[in-house]
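quick one
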Amino acid sequence: MDRKVRVRFAPSPTGGLHLGGVRTALFNYLFAKKNNGTFVLRVEDTDQNRFVAGAEEYIVDCLNWCGIMPDESPGNPGAYGPYRQSERKPSYRKFAEQLIGDGYAYYAFDTPEELDAKRKEISNFQYGQATRMQMRNSLTLTISEVEDLLAAKTPHVIRIKVPEDEIVHFNDLIRGDVSFETSLVDDKVLLKADGMPTYHLAVVVDDKAMEISHAFRGEEWLPSAPVHILLWKYLGWETDMPQWAHLPLILKPDGHGKLSKRDGDRLGFPVYAMNWTDPKTGDITKGFKEMGFMPDAFINMLALLGWNDGTDQELFSLLELEDKFSIERISKAGAKFDFEKAKWYNHEWIKQSTADTLQQLVSTELHKASIEAGDVQFLKTIIDLIKDRCTLLPDFVAQSSYFFAPPAEYDINSVKPKWTAEKAAFFNDYADKLRLVDAVSEEAAFKALAEEKGFKPGELMLPFRIILVGGKFGPGVFDIAVLLGVAETKARIEKAVMLFNS
Ligand code: GLU
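structure w/ glutamic acid:
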């Protein structure tokens, strides 16, 4: 019988959620959806030193914003709890001790000072097969010495005993056969002095307990894979091991290496999904959401960082991704992050979204700028008129504020040099004749009047735009006038003509 598909996103609650983390969550989610599986959120909070209050809630908020909700999570547990690693603490020690009993792990009593001294003595010191017999551990001490130390509650850790000269193999769903020489793998700590497991033990015990069938995670975890594979084997669970898929790195736009938050700070773009407020310093790091990205665009952009459907198609809804996602089309090579391309996705998503979809998002942006949109139909008409000009959601404010109040400033320099008393007379006359039934007939009436007064209509279009909008931007000027209505258009003409005359 085929195994039930259960995947997990297993972040550590240590701060802002990097876009690479969201992509890992997304690929797990898509694989689950595609295979009628279950997407689990497991919070890996065993490192007490790195734990940050509020980070778990924040991660959940980010996933909600992206629309990739876990089927099981700390807040919505299923039958495989607990979903916070720290709550599973009592169960880890017995597995670590089982490994000791079977000769696959050992107690290590080295003090921090002893370890420091060794690091000074041996450059690039690694606690492992080359050095373990020089250290204070249950491999070098007698049984009774070890018993005494344990009875005296001497602080100690438990380390895996990595075998000598073996090759550890596994089949990665993206990379194919991957192998490691154990001579290069150190004896990782499995259980810390505080009784908490390290990530290495916890990830294996939890994946087993939660019946995880496939694990998509970032390529940065590949070097840890041999330790995990050995643990699956040593704990006697080999047949239950998930299938691994190590996702390609998301790379810096310039240079080499993994995209970091510092790159975002340096180059002026967000790296976190949503704003993250450091609870200690109060510092806010900007997120894609607050920068004005639509969640659909953000998800679409992330999906294409390392995956494509084999065609040139670049725009995918989440539903389409759920349908089309396939491991075979995930690339092995790292994907360079390109903020201009991210903005392109957002622009395309804004253009293809209906006014109904955008209305709430735009109202929120306007509200932030102290503009109350008022009538919903009016707002939707505006959205349809200007959305092609908006790349990020806050652009809707700059592109629409003149619909809600007359311009606060005018680009006078673009009008003044060619302004004449005749033009002023034309606009005053035109103001009296406004009908504004629809843009097409209004444009015809404007042009007819211009010609009758001896103008080329083109000479009057720019002043008219600046009268209504304040600057050289915006959709069709007659569309704007029709939406503003007769009274408002007239008032704007009168006000600006006086200004241009003065
Ligand atoms: N807790 C690890 C992280 O923070 C999870 C790695 C894994 O998925 O195995 O990314």
